[in-house]
Amino acid sequence: MSFSKFRISLALVALLALGGCGSVANWVTPYKIDILQGNVITREQVEALKPGMPREQVRDILGSPLLASVFHADRWDYVFTLQRRGQEPLRRRVTVFFKDGVLERHEADELPTEAEFVASLDVRRDKKAKPPVLEATEQQLKDFAERNKPQAPPLPASAAPAPATTNFPPLESGR
């Protein structure tokens, strides 16, 4: 028997042995992505809520609610779930209550800070590493403002030159 036939036979025997006992299935698992659903609400956002705020201001802070029921018009629910392979799903809930169009109160689960939430997203990163800086320096703000200067507004219609008029022949001839 040649050496290459021997290697092929040995590989087949090894595969049959591994496949027969089911250990290959334990080694090979499909990739499952992390599933994020809903609104990410942080502790800083909830701390910014004050009784008496109008609905629009609450929406500016928290975003559009995941659940806004016609039957509970004075209640908005913000729900967040994070599902990772091999872990129990993480669920968080924030509910805001309105009375006469303004914020009356809110209820919330234990929420992370923005830095804690960002650090929890990358499970591969070294846990001792600091999360990224979430604030801009004065120079970064100036650079951003310089790059995004507003353009001059368009001229009002009254200041624009009038289009040239063109005379067209009549559509019907007089009979």
TrEMBL record:
Outer membrane protein assembly factor BamE domain residues: 38-105
Organism superkingdom: Bacteria
Entry keywords, A to Z: Cell outer membrane, Lipoprotein, Membrane, Palmitate, Signal
Molecular function in Gene Ontology: protein-macromolecule adaptor activity
GO cellular component annotations of the record: Bam protein complex
GO biological process, one term: Gram-negative-bacterium-type cell outer membrane assembly
UniProt xrefs under InterPro entries: BamE, BamE-like, BamE_dom
Membrane association type: Lipid-anchor
Compartments it resides in: Cell outer membrane
Ranges where the record places region Disordered: 138-175
Residues forming coiled coils: none
Extent of Basic and acidic residues compositional bias: 140-149
Segments passing through the bilayer: none
Gene3D superfamilies with a match to the protein in the record: 3.30.1450.10
Function, in words: Part of the outer membrane protein assembly complex, which is involved in assembly and insertion of beta-barrel proteins into the outer membrane.
Similarity comment: family membership: Belongs to the BamE family.
Assembly and oligomerization: Part of the Bam complex.
Protein known as: Outer membrane protein assembly factor BamE
Species whose genome carries this gene: Hydrogenophaga borbori
